[in-house]
């Protein structure tokens, strides 16, 4: 998916800051990959590059063997905050990307309603965002990313702003959605247990400059459940990743 | 039930203010009746009413003249300030070119400029509208520009990842996002337009409430002057609440966020 990807940011003081350095990453179809690492390790930058929000300074992005055309209709994005349009209803917000893409809204209304049902928001179609809880708003933003059926879902710490319980609940729900509508998911998180619980593969990143230190394939059976967090395999994965991150940017790996 | 509750709440909110106003008027009346305050210095409320009522045949045209100047100035300001704000947001060059002179213009007292403007434009109602507009213009430009740039950065990232055109993003994201900002400036602008209209009437007009105040002051008809002042402030209040009402219609999401007493 990405080859030798770098991103430089011009800074006001002195030399350019290197946010990402020589990142190689391959994501398979329908794979669930989590990017984990401390602040400043470039994981959000990487996600923005995938999303076509910013352009790489060096390197190439490809999709199915072809250079990734950007912006791409194959990509859905979910952010840490729901960033909904406050004046629109739940349904209107979910249909927003359809309008931005220039598709016919009427063709997607049924799909939007199915998604609303899938995330348990049936009956709230006409509600405005300020009438919903944080967790419900984030569910809406997930539906918004899914409505035009993109192949890839990019999620930038989507549950970080939620309370611990809602966070776990939504994690399990996301896995459920992922099994029902096959997607490739790239999921950025600060939380190591969350990264392990969700992923097929955890990509560990370190900062200054942002780079990948190791990729760890998670050998836990699916479907996953919260109870797995108490198994020895789970704990082992978490420990390995924690060691990698705290070893520092030049740590032994 | 809900209506009754609403009425009760409204009564609670306004009753104390109304009582204080009544008490004030009664005290004023009593002071005027019991002391020897000359009428030209402080006429009693009842006298103000009587003197003003005598002019009821001509008052509507004065009120309407001022109202036209206010509304004309307000809409003229709106119609020029919003496009300018949009242009400034989308063109950094235009921003650099227009902001300094705009700031300079804003720092000149409009009252002092009114005579000059009247010499240039003439003394008709359109001139009074233009003066009102120049006073109301500035806050609309600044607030609208701020509002157009206030749209959430991640939301804009999302529109970019979907390849949406700038025009579409403008209509569906930036403009609605700016509406609450626009309205908060319009509430300021409408009161400024009233000031601008009165200033214009002071400088040169043959009707209007400002003209009435000026002429009644000239002939020591203090009661009539008070009457015109009351009418002027009523006109200002009504215009202000008209803007508030339109805001409620157009940005219900915004007001319900700010106002927890909204019933939910």
Main attributes of the structure:
heterodimer, A: 253 residues, alpha/beta, Rossmann fold, 2 domains, six-stranded mixed beta sheet, 7 helices, 10 strands, 23% strand, B: MetI-like fold, 11 helices, disordered C terminus
Structure description:
The complex is a heterodimer of chains A (253) and B (264). In chain A, helix 2 (90-101) packs parallel to helix 4 (134-146) and helix 6 packs across helix 7 (232-246). Chain A folds into two domains: 18-74 and 151-253, Rossmann fold; 83-149, no CATH class. Chain A is globular. Chain A is 33% helix and 23% strand. The model of chain A has no long low-confidence stretch (mean pLDDT 85). The two termini of chain A are 24 Å apart. In chain A, strand 9 and strand 10 (211-217) form a beta hairpin. Chain A has helices spanning 43-51, 90-101, 109-118, 134-146, 164-180, 192-198, 232-246, and strands spanning 2-9, 17-25, 32-36, 58-63, 66-67, 75-78, 152-156, 184-189, 201-206, 211-217. Chain A is of the alpha/beta class and 253 residues long. Chain A has a six-stranded mixed β-sheet, sandwiched between helices. In chain A, strands 2-1-4-5 form a four-stranded antiparallel β-sheet, covered by helices on one side. Chain B has 264 residues and is mainly alpha-helical. Helix content of chain B is 83%, strand content 0%. Chain B is flat, with a radius of gyration of 23 Å. In chain B, helix 3 packs across helix 10, helix 5 packs across helix 8 and helix 6 runs antiparallel to helix 8 (166-203). Chain B contains eleven helices and no strands. Chain B folds into two domains: 1-36; 44-262, MetI-like (MetI-like fold, Orthogonal Bundle). Chain B has helices at residues 2-34, 45-54, 59-90, 92-107, 110-121, 125-148, 153-161, 166-203, 209-218, 222-250, 252-258. Chain A binds chain B through residues 48, 51-53, 70-73, 75, 77, 79, 81, 83, 85-87, 96-97, 99-102, 128-131, and chain B through 152, 154-155, 157-164, 168-169, 172-173, 176, 251-254, 256-257, 264.
